[in-house]
Amino acid sequence: MIIDIVTIFPEFFNDFLDNSIIKKAIICNQVDIRLNQLRDYSHNKHKKIDDTPYGGGVGMLMAFPPFYDCIEKIKTPESKIIMLSPQGKLFNQKKAIELSKEKHLILLCGHYEGIDARVEELIDEEISIGDYVLTGGEIPAMIITDAVTRLIPDVIHADSAEEDSLQNGWLKFPQFTKPEKYKGYHVPEVLRSGNHQLIDQYRFEESIKQTMRKRPDLIDKIELTEKEEKVLQKLNNPIKK
Ligand SMILES: C[S@@+](CC[C@H](N)C(=O)[O-])C[C@H]1O[C@@H](n2cnc3c(N)ncnc32)[C@H](O)[C@@H]1O
After folding, report:
1. What's the pLDDT at 240?
2. Whose CA is nearest to atom 20 of ligand 1?
3. Which residues are catalytic?
4. Is 75 exposed, middle or buried (0-12, 13-18, 19+ CB in 10 A)?
5. What mean pLDDT is predicted for residues 217-231?
6. Helix (H), strand (E), coil (C) string for 182-194
7. What is the pLDDT of residue 241?
8. Nearest atom of ligand 1 to the alpha carbon of 115
9. Rg (CA), the chain
């Protein structure tokens, strides 16, 4: 997959691209992440890319021509062009899965008061990473790039991605590592039993319990299997002694 990021702050991405899973995915050619300096497409000899808004108002807006020219230069018939914006549809794991199947993403980062509204006519989607306003689109672009890259086949272990929270709608079951006991805090007995059938059942139920406890709002959006429905019913109506 190719991810083109259009930004006036390409240097923000240096550490992000040079560490951990993203770095490994780049080295293994699983993803090609290109940083495009929007100022290179400025029509101004001082490389200015912003101006005052028509009709008045505070702040500066990023101009249309540099975005138009940059998109024209980098887009291909396979590109999906996404503008980062607090006005967009909320990003979630379902969207990350969908985007991880694309061949080419172009992520447009705004700054200042945002971007000239004509850019909306050039894009396929407007995505927000949450209902709050950030200074620029660079952190949202990193979030989307990270969430999407780890879903590209073989970037991380397939089972690990499959078991992640939200991947199938549910939150992941709780996990523990050594030591087995510390200051009176214990690892659940069943996980030390070596009985894989019991462990699978425990994890299945704990994943449902975890979701009921932390994010009950997610449950309505899940198409329940018969097995999940049974466990939910059991947890909702515990047998009274
Ligand atoms: C200060 S914001 C502009 C907000 C704009 N004036 C408005 O009210 O909608 C500057 C840039 O940051 C990015 N941004 C801010 N919050 C965001 C969010 N929640 N999700 C995605 N991008 C965001 C966008 O690229 C935006 O163009």
Report:
1. 58
2. 128
3. 86, 113, 150, 164
4. middle
5. 95
6. ECCEECCHHHHCC
7. 52
8. 27
9. 23
The rounded Å distance from CA 134 to ligand 1 centre is 6
pLDDT at 130: 98
Hey, what CATH class is 2-156 in?
Answer: alpha beta
| Rounded Cα–Cα distance for residues 88 and 2 (Å) | 22
Q: Is 20 left (phi over 0), alpha (psi -120 to 50) or beta?
A: left
Q: Which CATH number fits domain 181-236: 1.10.3720.10, 1.10.1270.20, 3.90.870.40, 3.40.50.720?
A: 1.10.1270.20
Domain with CATH 1.10.1270.20 in the chain: 181-236
Note the pLDDT tens digit of each residue in 97-110: 999 999 999 999 99
Asked if pLDDT for residue 148 goes beyond 70, the answer is yes
Q: Which of 62, 129, 133, 139 to mutate to test the pocket of ligand 1 (most atoms within 8 A of CB)?
A: 133
Quote the ligand 1 centre to 74 CA distance (angstroms).
Answer: 23
pTM of the model: 0.95
Pocket of ligand 1, beta carbon within 6 A: 84-87, 109-111, 113-115, 128-130, 132-137, 140
161-174 pLDDT tens trace: 888 999 999 999 99
Tell me: the pLDDT tens digits for 194-204? Answer: 999 999 999 99
Gap between the Cα atoms of 8 and 49, Å rounded: 9
In the reported structure, the alpha carbon of residue 140 is separated from the centroid of ligand 1 by a whole-number distance in angstroms of: 9
